[in-house]
Amino acid sequence: MTQPANLLATPPAVITAGIDLLAQSLTQQAVEVVPVDFKPTAQPSEEVASALNAVLADPRLAEANAEAVRRMMAVRASIVDVVPAGEELGMKPGDFFHAGPPLTWDRASGPMKGALIGAMLFEGLADSAEDAEAKLAAGEGITLSPCHEHLAVGPMAGVVSPKMWMFKLRDEATGNTAYCSLNEGLGKVLRYGAYNSEVIERLEWMSSVLGPLLQMAVRGTGPIDATAIVGQMVQMGDEGHNRNRAGTLMFLREILPSLVSGGADPADVGEVCRFVGANDHFFLNVVMPVGKLMGMAASGVPGSSIVTVMCRNGTDFGIRVSGTGDRWFTGPAQVPVGLFLAGYDEDDANPDIGDSAITETMGVGGMVMATAPAIVRLVGGAVPDALATTTRMYEITEGENPNFAVPILEFRGAPTGIDVTKVLRTGVLPQINTGMAGAVAGTGQVGAGLVNPPMECFTQAIVALAEELPAS
Fold this sequence. Notes:
Blueprint: E1 13-17, H1 21-28, E2 32-36, H2 46-56, H3 61-74, E3 77-84, H4 85-89, E4 95-98, H5 110-122, H6 129-138, E5 143-146, E6 152-153, E7 165-171, E8 176-181, H7 197-221, E9 224-225, H8 226-235, H9 245-261, H10 266-277, H11 284-298, E10 307-313, E11 316-321, E12 329-332, E13 337-340, E14 353-354, H12 358-361, H13 376-379, H14 383-393, E15 397-406, E16 412-418, H15 420-426, E17 432-437, E18 445-451, H16 455-467
Parallel strand pairs: 1-2, 4-5, 6-8
Antiparallel strand pairs: 3-7, 3-9, 7-8, 10-11, 10-14, 11-12, 13-18, 15-16, 17-18
């Protein structure tokens, strides 16, 4: 017979929650205290509560969510080409894709306006920043549309113009393709809203040298298994959003033989190797279309409450959900909290911006911060915070992706498939780690930090899912 535990044989330990008065009193008496950061979930409106109950009662829900996540985790994305955006995506002069949900010039933030001004200068559609801004404001011959509506994703401002080159990825099982621009590096770059002569010169070099040489190297190498590289980098200390060092070097290793033997000018080959090797974020622009393909595969499952897209344009945060297809649900983008570059503070930061939250949508980035504890030095916090964050993300996700295993959690699969119903029931929002752009056009990067989506996106989504329920 099992003997009852002797609770008096060891010193007591007390778990406390809520206000800290009890914890303080116990600590003063030398009692071990384990405080729990607890706050009650905000009570939803009657409309939202009713919609949530209706969706939870949908007999299709469990099977639909399992199917959406199964499709997501079955994607095997390969880099198949590097291509000019204009030729591949049918863009004409004056067409610009941008990050986040739909946006008009008059509502664009500083970094978005800066990136569009820079793209106008790069495309030769304006003689000066003032001329570009006037033409963008007038809108004549200019079209703005989200990258996500063109099978593409773009980091930060995410602006894509016809002369830019794009990674092209494909999932053979579904036949889907996805695209992302090439990464410029950090600091004063177009995607952070900078547009000085240095930015334009770099874009010209990327268009005339980097893009064509990468195309030669990728075609010479053959399809490159991007999903496998993401899985390896997660086990090597990258989380796939703000840390991509291992992924970048693995990609460079894959293409080097074809790059070196392809017959290009050795000076150009050397410069490409230096540029990619010195840019730890270069592979982010491959991780993102992997996530886009995973979201595309999971989209359109009737009754599913799994999030397939999370993105922001510097003004709005937007999500899409499997069961409602391509419909947008938006709320105000939040300002990240984190660390700033020298000379900047929170007053200089723009609200969250970029399609790169597709990394969290696919289950990496902020969702697996536990696998990249070094990242906390960039975004603020401590190693226990990273572990706690990833553990918390399992509360709001449907599955665990074995392709992206987290070593420190005994190789547990990454938390994958954010479920709108779980977000609303727990009050836990997805964790995103991100760069911060300066609020003033032309500033560039000012820091990096952590941010969450606004709850409004999820409340709108649940109401829409309830409206999609079949008539009883």
